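Slide 14.
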Amino acid sequence: MNATLIAVALSLVSAAAYASAAVAQARLAGRTEASAGILRLLGRGAWWSAVGLNAAGALLHVAALKYGPLTLVQPLGALTLVAAVPLGARAAGRRVSGTEWRGTVLTLLGLGALLLAAGGAAPHDTLSLAEALAVGAVTLSLVAVLSRPGARPGLRHAAASGLASGVASALTQTLTVATTDRSGPLLSWRLVTVALLVSAFALGGLLLSQTAYRGGLGAPLAVVTLANPVAAAAIGLALLGEHIQGGVTGLAPALAGTAAAVRGVILLSRAQDRNAAATDPPRATGDRPPSRVVVAGPPVAGARAADSLPLHAEPVRGP
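Slide 15: predicted structure.
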């Protein structure tokens, strides 16, 4: 099996793990008041289930980055949202809607075009210490701007989460390639610095996504799904010598594939929001808005039996 097929296979399983983690985070976010701190989350089994699923997805993703370039591996993260469609429909006891089918088909066709355009050999280039520090500084500035208080914090936090996670993946590839090619010491300043940056951005992306999912899973997950590969691919193309297959000729199908995948992800996110709204019971005027938003998805280890039933928004008391 060649390197490209290994990278694709690992990315598929990684996307499934990340999809389950996102559902777990959305459920937990709906049960947790906005004022609750990180220490409150650390005492909940659902949080650690989400962390475990994210860790499994991350390990598989790291392995995929060893065999495939960022421009190949990162766009496959869009399958995170695709994987949630049949699982969510099954949990809700309904059929997959026409909009969901269209979104799934467009996303898969777009990813197929990107795979043809981005397919290449296993990565060899890595970021220098100066490049890693520059990437970290720019990313930190952008995340700070997106995380500031203001309107629509969910989508901004989702964009910041996708950006942080995408940069963490790009830095992870440098760490993985540098530590497996045995071309230098494992405890160099460059690798230690990159490892610290990976840890910071990966944790930051996880916490930002937790706050983004408080308003529901559909739109924030779509923003995370789109921002992540954009950030990673930009680093791969600008700093790691990655390129589009076929040069200028291959740019047209790559752009067409990107447009199709983006449109598919948007359709999927809208369908998820529409399905959540359809199951929301009517409330009398003046009722308190629901403090819990639960999204249909696959059962998560440790979740209550009721969470595997058709899910909807419902008011609950705070923790």
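Speaker note: Residues 271 and 316 are 25 Å apart (CA to CA).
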